[in-house]
Amino acid sequence: MSSHSELDETDEFQDETSFNATSSAKSAEVRELIVPPELHGQRLDRMLVAGVPEFSRSYLQQLLEDGAVSHIGLKQAKSSQKVKAGEVWTIELRATPQSQAFKPEQMPLHVVYEDAHLRVIDKPAGLVVHPAPGNWSGTLMNGLLGLDSQLTDLPRAGIVHRLDKDTSGLMVVARNRLAMDALVQKIAARDIHRQYVAMSDRPWTSSKQKTVDLPIGRDPANRLRMAVVDLTRHSGKVAKTQFHVLSQNEQGSLVRCILETGRTHQIRVHMAWLKLPLVGDTLYGGAIHNLMPRQALHAERLSFDHPITGQAMDFLSPLPADFESLRQAWSLSYNEKA
Question: What is the gyration radius of the CA atoms in the chain, in angstroms?
Fold first, then answer.
């Protein structure tokens, strides 16, 4: 699940990438670490960070969890374990599933535009954007690395925003650091315009145009979901979505959604709050339909000024086959350029 900020960016992954690039072709390196007096009584994870400073805390935690850290022959897995001055610890610096995730893979990505600075990808439903537990390979990031090996030098291979696994449609990705930094700034400034089409199996009963301006945070009752929250009581971020009804009848509604912010699951949460959960979105109360085996959400349009040249860019993605089948079955009309 993509339960993270769409603008989140970190260089932490570069440590793991470097390990994979420099060490995967040779056997794992075993190091002995002697606890210095100044770290007596400190946590094991702090000692490891001090003893192996060239790798990230996240990577060292992975090694702990994988049983690669030991003392007097006994494997240790608790970060909070206290160490004593003079103790000898052993750490095996080896590839973890996470570090191996940063590998190029060949996959048939649909590239709708590319130049020296960026690509625009039309992502199919079912493709995970970034490696995470349960999906350490076969992701869009792996596919991007397969297209362009120089992307190993960029955080997250140039990915600057995300789509959920089961959301289809357009994404822009950077090919160099200059473009990546500029795209991140554009997203933060809301200068990249993202337009989606969603489908609910319930008729739209409100006015044909509606703006939902309600903050989103972790659902206090279910940490696996997001929810509209009261910021005086729970943590969250402002979230604003414009909705325009394209077509509706007794069977359901086809809705255009324009993001003014980019929060995790934003459209899904706001549609559920409107009592119009997406078809197939069981996490937020949507019903399964045999023609739509995933959440009915498609990123149909992406518009922005090129981060380097300033040229106006505008891309449209047609409705995918499952969307189109359900739309026709329900006799809902759709004009992509409206």
Answer: 23
Six token digits for residue 89: 């610890």
Specify burial of residue 205 (Cβ count, 10 A radius: 0-12, 13-18, 19+).
exposed
Q: Residue 292's CB: how many other CB atoms inside 10 A?
A: 23
Q: What percent of the chain has pLDDT over 90?
A: 68
Q: Is 164 a catalytic residue?
A: yes
How far is 3 from 283, CA to CA, in rounded Å?
A: 12
Does the pTM surpass 0.90? The reply is no
- Residue 70 pairs with which residues in a beta bridge? 75, 90
Separation between Cα atoms, residue 91 and residue 29, nearest integer Å: 8
Helix (H, G, I), strand (E, B) or coil at 197: strand
Tokens of 274: 């409107």
pLDDT tens, 229-263? 999 999 999 999 999 999 999 999 999 999 999 89
Q: Which of 164, 201, 281, 322 is catalytic?
A: 164
Q: Is residue 316 packed enough to be buried (19+ CB in 10 Å), middle (13-18) or exposed (0-12)? A: middle
Residue located via tokens 């297209």: 147
- Helix/strand/coil for 155: helix
| Pairwise CA distance, residues 35 & 51, whole Å | 8
Mean pLDDT of 132-158: 87
